[in-house]
Specification:
about 190 residues; mainly beta; SH3 type barrels; OB fold (Dihydrolipoamide Acetyltransferase, E2P); six-stranded antiparallel beta sheet
Length: about 190
């Protein structure tokens, strides 16, 4: 058990039986009142944000979390099969842990996976940007870069995204994995 004052932003704790990550932590000392910690925490299972106040001496269960890099190999039902780059051990990762970014990753991408006590994966994080080839889009117009008008395009994974008018089928583009936004064309 640790005290609340031992925590910092990004720490993983068990709160009300759920695994949560500390998003924000503020130490407040209002006027004549006693000091307290204001914590904003995000549930890893539901994504829900919880705020609570703690006294400086309150004890809380801090989790030992180990992060490792795994290479995404292929999809198997509702799971992703990933391989440890050093031991070549394969694990099954639930798609839910990646959230929306699961639609914007492809085979061979390196994922950062966090494990509680070295056993069960509790979070997974995709790289910030991934390059894709556009498999289908309407023909582009030469020189139409002045406006920010977007059109639909399909990428290698089958996901549909919005791209500028000058992007054509076969172009290599960079996508932000968290939102699926077009970033730039890659040569």
């Amino acid at each position: 058990m640790a005290t609340v004052s031992d925590l910092n932003k990004g720490s993983y704790v068990r709160y009300n039986g759920e695994v949560v990550q500390v998003e924000e932590m503020q130490h407040r000392t209002p006027g004549n009142l006693r000091a307290f910690y204001q914590l904003k925490m995000r549930s890893l299972r539901t994504g829900k944000i919880v705020e609570n106040r703690f006294r400086p001496g309150d004890s809380i269960e801090q989790l030992r979390v180990e992060t490792k890099e795994y290479q995404y190999l292929y999809q198997d039902g509702d799971s992703l099969v990933c391989m440890d780059n050093t031991t070549f051990e394969q694990i099954y990762l639930d798609k839910v842990l990646l959230g929306e970014s699961v639609n914007y990753i492809k085979e061979g991408v390196t994922l950062l996976i966090a494990f509680e006590n070295g056993m069960d994966p509790i979070t997974a994080e995709a790289p910030a940007h991934v390059n894709f080839i556009v498999t289908y889009t309407e023909p582009g117009m030469q020189g139409d870069t002045a406006t920010r008008t977007l059109k639909a395009a399909t990428i290698e994974t089958g996901a549909e995204i919005r791209v500028p008018l000058f992007v054509n089928t076969g172009d290599n583009i960079k996508i932000k994995t968290s939102t699926g936004e077009y970033v730039e064309r890659v040569k």
